Amino acid sequence: MSNPADLKYTESHEWVRTEADGSITIGITQHAQELLGDMVFVETPAVGRKVKAKEEVAVVESVKAAADVYAPVSGEVTAVNSELDSAPEAINADPYGAWMFKMKPDNAADVAALLDATAYQAVVDSEAH
Amino acid sequence: MLKKTPLNAAHRAMGAKMVDFGGWDMPVNYGSQIDEHHQVRNDVGMFDVCHMRVVDAKGDGVRAFLRYLLANNADKITIPGKALYSAMLRPNGGVIDDLIIYFMSEQWFRIVVNAGTADKDIAWMKEQAATHAPSLTITSRDDLAMVAIQGPNARAKVWQVLPQTKAATEKLVNFQAADCGEYFVARTGYTGEDGFEVMLPKEKVEEFWYALNKAGVPPIGLGARDTLRLEAGMNLYGQDMDESVGPLESGLGWTVDLKSERDFIGKAALLANPPSKQLVGLVLLDRGVLRGHQKVFTAQGEGEITSGSFSPTLERSIALARVPNSVKIGDTVQVEIRDKKLNAQVVKYPFARNGKGLI
């Protein structure tokens, strides 16, 4: 699966979709879920929490390992996907559909400055070597 | 440079995700670790265990030597092919390794040791033999490969592929092996399921692997091997035990015979230092995943998780933990996971065996 071109990405393997109202939706990438393997637990942040860019906001645990999920930009958490509580494996099946949380960014320019699909692929490729 | 087993190319051809496992390039899974786990509990799967080492101890007095070398008593196995699980200790009681010995004859015991510890094990055995049994030969069988076939349908699949071994192996009880010429077949394993571990010449192992696969036996990675063995309550060297702890604090008390007259390496240290800790099972009551090295808080003091994971059979998180001796089955304890303390219940392990959850 290639990385969708309409999304933004972080070096720490989150994907970011900008919604019509300016909010952003965050999940983890295909590459990240492949590295982690079968997901068994997702811990999402509290709605209303104010976070800074690169701050740990959520945790995904696979059978193999736990991994932190980071805020791509500074802002406020506005929603979480509680369906992942009972079905964490949705992240394996559809990483770009199984979103984890939504944020209202402090500054829209921060989102525009994130990696595009091509730049993110370069990060993935460099990690493989 | 990572070491490779003779099945390395086969793993890649079958789509394995490969990882560095203690210096070996090994398959962690071929897709979904959870699917592979259930496959073994419900049907059959095969594991590349060529990285483990087969050692033959041969000569006069081999039994007497093993009686002194090992914490478990080699005198317990008198029927040819019978196997015994034992720890091998340092004089201070620390565990050098856990291993399986097979009694083949009074001139020949076969020993299978862990991959990561094989070199130090063999050096230790040779050093002890030089002092206590100089006529023995201790030979690392680097010419042999090993495949484990595990699951309720494992034996039938092996007989389908190696019909010439059926007559000699169908009457084997659990923990017994038969020497079938090129194939040494043992009814042992590390998953809590029925099955065979087959030792065979290295040059034949790839053909055997593909023949099993053609007969419907899928390959299983080290990921599922770890969750299967944890559910089965089997200790893993380097996690649940090592040279810094004694066998009585590592869940191996049942293998250590301190009552008989027999002397063995480490016995005096074990008698002089009664254990203050024990290995227990934990089941997480809150949501999360238990992992090795997390702290355990009990009313009697602190402990530590030695192995923890998600249990695919129980669909909750389980662990082995070293906790104070006075902690009881049924107690509720707290486990520190990141910055939170979550509740877990102390249980008697194994957690699952023969396809079923036991908790």
UniProtKB/TrEMBL annotation, chain A:
<comment type="similarity">
    <text>Belongs to the GcvH family.</text>
</comment>
<dbReference type="GO" id="GO:0005960">
    <property type="term" value="C:glycine cleavage complex"/>
</dbReference>
<feature type="domain" description="Lipoyl-binding">
    <location>
        <begin position="23"/>
        <end position="104"/>
    </location>
</feature>
<dbReference type="GO" id="GO:0005829">
    <property type="term" value="C:cytosol"/>
</dbReference>
<dbReference type="GO" id="GO:0009249">
    <property type="term" value="P:protein lipoylation"/>
</dbReference>
<comment type="subunit">
    <text>The glycine cleavage system is composed of four proteins: P, T, L and H.</text>
</comment>
<protein>
    <recommendedName>
        <fullName>Glycine cleavage system H protein</fullName>
    </recommendedName>
</protein>
<feature type="modified residue" description="N6-lipoyllysine">
    <location>
        <position position="64"/>
    </location>
</feature>
<dbReference type="InterPro" id="IPR000089">
    <property type="entry name" value="Biotin_lipoyl"/>
</dbReference>
<keyword id="KW-0450">Lipoyl</keyword>
<dbReference type="InterPro" id="IPR017453">
    <property type="entry name" value="GCV_H_sub"/>
</dbReference>
<dbReference type="InterPro" id="IPR011053">
    <property type="entry name" value="Single_hybrid_motif"/>
</dbReference>
<dbReference type="GO" id="GO:0019464">
    <property type="term" value="P:glycine decarboxylation via glycine cleavage system"/>
</dbReference>
<dbReference type="InterPro" id="IPR002930">
    <property type="entry name" value="GCV_H"/>
</dbReference>
<dbReference type="InterPro" id="IPR033753">
    <property type="entry name" value="GCV_H/Fam206"/>
</dbReference>
<dbReference type="Pfam" id="PF01597">
    <property type="entry name" value="GCV_H"/>
</dbReference>
<comment type="function">
    <text>The glycine cleavage system catalyzes the degradation of glycine. The H protein shuttles the methylamine group of glycine from the P protein to the T protein.</text>
</comment>
<dbReference type="InterPro" id="IPR003016">
    <property type="entry name" value="2-oxoA_DH_lipoyl-BS"/>
</dbReference>
